[in-house]
Amino acid sequence: MSDSGETVVVAVRVRPFNDREKERNAQLIVNMPDGKSTSISDPNAPNEEPKWFTFDYSYWSHDGYKEEKNGYLTAASHSNYADQKQVFENLGKGVLDNAWNGYNCSLFAYGQTGSGKSYSIVGTKKNKGIIPLVCEELFNRIESTKSKDVEFQVIIIL
Ligand SMILES: Nc1ncnc2c1ncn2[C@@H]1O[C@H](COP(=O)(O)OP(=O)(O)OP(=O)(O)O)[C@@H](O)[C@H]1O
């Protein structure tokens, strides 16, 4: 469940081209004009209309980013680049809020090899993904809530 009352929230994210794609002069065929809709065009049929899809979130992380001094990638000015914090705010926080309220929650990433699942879910040291950010927030909340009458137990099942 999320703030919007939806039981399932679906997001898509487009990553930057990797070196192999750049070497092969890959063509960008995805467009995300408003944060929710995604279009895909067929490069072999330039006269055909693109196909449009709507999601709860369409994250543009392909370009339009700048690197901060600490290595964090964030939106350059006038860019709609979705950074790790934005993804966490929209997806991770909702899951955490619901878990905190006693609901069982799951979050999973789906996509082909190299599409960016680990980057969004785990991230890197400088660009932490949802799991480390959720853990930070979880332990902050525990720290600020615990008292002599309240005890917390966190279990990780591998
Ligand atoms: N939003 C992003 N911004 C910058 N780089 C990204 C982003 N998403 C993915 N990448 C980079 O793209 C590469 C592939 O991403 P990642 O390893 O997360 O894919 P994956 O879907 O988990 O792959 P696999 O299924 O093979 O494990 C990595 O080098 C990662 O750093």
TrEMBL record:
Domain of life: Eukaryota
Pfam name, any one: Kinesin
Keyword field: ATP-binding, Motor protein, Nucleotide-binding
Binding annotation for ATP: 111-118
Signal sequence extent: none
InterPro entries, A to Z: Kinesin_motor_dom (IPR001752), Kinesin_motor_dom_sf (IPR036961), P-loop_NTPase (IPR027417)
Transmembrane helix listed as a keyword: no
Domain Kinesin motor: 7-158
PROSITE patterns per the UniProt record, alphabetical: KINESIN_MOTOR_2
A GO biological-process term: microtubule-based movement
A GO MF term: microtubule motor activity
Keyword Iron-sulfur: no
Annotated family: Belongs to the TRAFAC class myosin-kinesin ATPase superfamily. Kinesin family.
Name assigned to this protein: Kinesin motor domain-containing protein
Annotated organism of origin: Panagrolaimus davidi
UniProt lineage: Eukaryota, Metazoa, Ecdysozoa, Nematoda, Chromadorea
